[in-house]
């Protein structure tokens, strides 16, 4: 899609017509598994089976904080059909695990630190027997008062041997004595969002003859999961194999390692294959969630609306264990001022342990929470200055060459002003007609109790940014192999397809580079070299870059004999539509003829330029690259009932380069819709650490009926020179930006401050009309 596009598109409009034959980069090549998933034949992890299969169940703590006095497994072991019961005493290796910080026990032994923490696991001949046996394990608890307020965690008794404070980042940038003529303050709270995968966690463990084990899982980081499992089982990594199977899509780290590890222990103990399929309740209790966050802000600006200084305090509730909280805090502090030029910034960021459910990686972590807060502050400034909110933002937006509060120069394309102007100038949707046949347009739906006269329309804006890849010195590397034989290419790369479209991209890269139509991407397992986790657009950049380099090496192998034969360099030969031609037309042959039955292959790595940790003043080049987005939200609010209907979200985004138009549009729409859930409905509620209603009835996900019209107004294709193909990841930044834009629009409609997400009905009610 051209960056000159002036009209909005949707995913459906971007899809190719049936007569088109998509090929290579820039084409809307459909995903290879599309048909299987739509027809219901795709083999998910929950569909796995093996001869002699046993079933597993896990006993989880009913308390958020308790001391374990005793664990009695004798009744469970004596039940007919039970083959094994394991607790912390049965872990032969490292008893702790964690995504970034190994502070989480496989099974609680002395203390329970959150509701749903694993205590024991059972393997039995039948799933019902396994569940009954798990319930028969008798645990005597001494219930303790939970620490559920993250502000109290600073003074509370240590909940963990590592203490309650996970990380503190004090960012100092500029003059601390700088003061603006206009000052606005605010306090904001962001709720606990759950990834809520459509398919709950499932897996199969199969013991190996060498005493090792194979785990068949919907893992998004198989090599990291293998290393953790091997350490837990007391085995060498080569004796543990993870085969990735049936990932139903991921908006976070897909697998709960606390779910995986008991599975392998049971298989090793029984010598039989063991399967575990989590219930929806277990899924909510086990995996990590978005960090609930408390934010306090003070913005200083001059009389013309230009930012002078930003002061902020950011407190992330990590829950019981650290997981990826340190990285989330770095993103929150680094992007605390948003895509704006701020000469002076003083940010305090903390991540603390509590007895709440564990928090971890969820798309746009850290950046999403601060975006909601700094955009609310921009609305407050605009109101106090009597300025148009979009105009105020335009006066402050950053561009390439500007400096982040971390001291890092923005070297990537940052067309923030262009994005904001595009959504601001896009035509507004028509107002709904006040007629009975159009009552379905009212907030609350066709059966709602609202009255047309109580509905107010609001328009708001959000500007967001995210970092791509890992940060603060993370070694981002991926390896890929490309093989070609008999006119068919095969890509081997351990990059897991989680719905982000990597397998489709890999096929397109090889098609583009080698002119071969038939390209297959091999299944992923840990016998392949590592490719890293499937988050933050890593595989588009790092794994896609490795595939590109390997394909180019094969291309050189293919063209060198021809170039030598005709006395020219390979640069003078091109491959188009399966044909090899020279610049002067002397040479013309097909790729198949040039292969002449040979097998060509090459392996390559891609490793982006290094980053560095933030120092004691929050300074450093911590991020590899950044992506930006502007969204204009239009909402209708029933100011008597507080119900909100998102009418339209107009979006402009810098994407570097469009590699697959249909796939890109679908990813953007999915991200925006996830943001609608954050803004209006999604909040995993707890009461003193206990998760209330851990099911899809109590946790309100947005449905197709809640999705607004999503207008992709502009995609700016200014290629990032350090990224393969110049492309940027696209799905995270709409998630970050859309909740802030929706809250801004509700503020415009109601005049209320709206300082909490999701927006509660009482926050949108206007009583002083």
UniProtKB/TrEMBL annotation:
- Which stretches of sequence are listed as region Disordered? 1-28
Q: Which InterPro entries match?
A: Ald_Oxase/Xan_DH_a/b, Ald_Oxase/Xan_DH_a/b_sf, Ald_Oxase/xanthine_DH-like, AldOxase/xan_DH_MoCoBD1, AldOxase/xan_DH_MoCoBD2, AldOxase/xan_DH_Mopterin-bd_sf
User: What positions does the domain Aldehyde oxidase/xanthine dehydrogenase a/b hammerhead occupy?
Assistant: 39-145
Composition-biased stretches (Low complexity): 1-18
**Superkingdom of this protein's organism:** Bacteria
This protein's name: Molybdopterin-dependent oxidoreductase
Q: What is the lineage of its organism?
A: Bacteria, Bacillati, Actinomycetota, Actinomycetes, Kitasatosporales
């Amino acid at each position: 899609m051209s960056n000159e596009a002036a009209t909005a598109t949707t995913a459906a409009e971007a899809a190719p017509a049936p007569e088109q034959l998509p090929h290579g980069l820039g084409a809307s090549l459909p995903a290879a598994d599309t048909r299987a998933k739509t027809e219901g034949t795709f083999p998910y992890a929950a569909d796995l089976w093996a001869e002699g299969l046993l079933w597993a169940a896990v006993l989880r703590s009913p308390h958020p904080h308790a001391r374990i006095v005793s664990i009695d497994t004798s009744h469970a072991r004596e039940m007919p059909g039970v083959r094994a019961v394991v607790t912390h005493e049965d872990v032969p290796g490292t008893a702790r695990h964690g995504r970034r910080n190994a502070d989480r026990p496989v099974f609680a032994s002395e203390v329970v630190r959150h509701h749903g923490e694993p205590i024991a696991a059972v393997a039995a001949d039948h799933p019902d027997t396994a569940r009954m046996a798990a319930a028969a394990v008798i645990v005597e608890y001494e219930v303790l008062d939970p620490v559920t307020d993250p502000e109290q965690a600073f003074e509370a008794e240590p909940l963990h041997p590592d203490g309650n404070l996970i990380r503190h980042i004090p960012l100092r940038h500029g003059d601390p004595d700088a003061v603006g003529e206009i000052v606005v303050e605010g306090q904001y709270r962001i709720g606990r969002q759950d990834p809520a995968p459509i398919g709950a966690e499932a897996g199969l463990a199969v013991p190996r003859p060498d005493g090792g084990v194979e785990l068949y899982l919907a893992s998004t980081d198989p090599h990291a999961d293998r290393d953790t499992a091997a350490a837990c089982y007391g085995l060498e990594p080569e004796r543990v194999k993870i085969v990735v199977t049936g990932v139903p899509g991921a908006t976070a780290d897909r697998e709960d390692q606390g779910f995986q590890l008991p599975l392998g222990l049971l298989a090793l103990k029984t010598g039989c294959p063991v399967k575990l399929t989590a219930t929806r309740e277990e899924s909510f209790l086990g995996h990590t969630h978005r960090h609930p966050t408390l934010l306090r802000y003070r913005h200083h600006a001059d009389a013309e609306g230009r930012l002078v200084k930003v002061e902020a305090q950011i407190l992330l509730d990590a829950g019981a264990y650290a997981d990826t909280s340190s990285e989330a805090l770095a993103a929150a502090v680094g992007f605390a001022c948003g895509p704006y030029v701020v000469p002076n910034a003083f940010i305090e960021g903390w991540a603390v342990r509590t007895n709440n459910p564990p928090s971890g990686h969820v798309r746009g972590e850290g950046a999403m929470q601060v975006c909601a807060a700094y955009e609310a502050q921009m609305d407050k400034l605009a109101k106090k200055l009597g300025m148009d909110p979009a105009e105020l933002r335009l006066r402050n937006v950053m561009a390439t060459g500007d400096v982040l509060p971390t001291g890092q120069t923005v070297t990537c394309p940052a067309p923030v002003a262009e994005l904001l102007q595009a959504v601001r100038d896009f035509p507004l949707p028509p107002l709904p007609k006040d007629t009975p046949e159009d009552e379905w347009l009212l907030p609350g739906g066709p059966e709602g109790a609202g009255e047309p006269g109580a509905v107010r329309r609001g328009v708001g804006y959000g500007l967001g940014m995210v970092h791509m890849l890992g940060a603060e010195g993370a070694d981002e590397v991926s390896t890929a192999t490309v093989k070609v034989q008999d006119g068919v290419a095969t890509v081997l790369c351990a990059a897991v397809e989680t719905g982000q479209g990597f397998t489709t991209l890999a096929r397109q890269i090889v098609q583009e580079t080698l002119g071969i139509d038939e390209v297959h991407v091999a299944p992923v397992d840990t016998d392949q070299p590592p490719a890293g986790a499937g988050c933050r657009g890593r595989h588009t950049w790092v794994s896609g870059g490795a595939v590109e380099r390997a394909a180019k090496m094969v291309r050189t192998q293919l063209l060198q004999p021809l170039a030598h034969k005709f006395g020219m360099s390979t640069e003078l030969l091109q491959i188009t539509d399966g044909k090899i031609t020279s610049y002067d037309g002397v040479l013309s042959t097909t790729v198949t003829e040039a292969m002449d039955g040979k097998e060509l292959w090459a392996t390559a790595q891609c490793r982006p330029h290094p980053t560095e940790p933030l120092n004691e003043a929050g300074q450093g080049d911590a991020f590899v690259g950044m992506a930006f987005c502007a969204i204009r939200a239009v909402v209708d609010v029933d100011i008597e009932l507080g119900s909100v209907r998102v009418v339209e979200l107009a979006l402009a985004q810098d994407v570097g380069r469009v590699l697959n138009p249909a796939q890109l549009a679908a990813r953007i729409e999915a991200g925006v819709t996830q943001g609608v859930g954050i803004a209006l409905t999604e909040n995993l509620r707890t009461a003193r650490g206990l998760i209330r209603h851990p099911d899809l009835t109590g946790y309100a996900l947005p449905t197709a009926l809640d999705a607004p019209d999503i207008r992709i107004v502009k995609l700016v294709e200014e290629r990032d020179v350090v990224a393969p193909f110049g492309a940027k990841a696209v799905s995270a930044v709409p998630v970050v930006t859309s909740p802030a834009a929706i809250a801004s629009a509700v503020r415009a409609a109601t005049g209320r401050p709206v300082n909490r997400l999701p927006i509660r009905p009482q926050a949108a009610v206007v009583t002083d009309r």
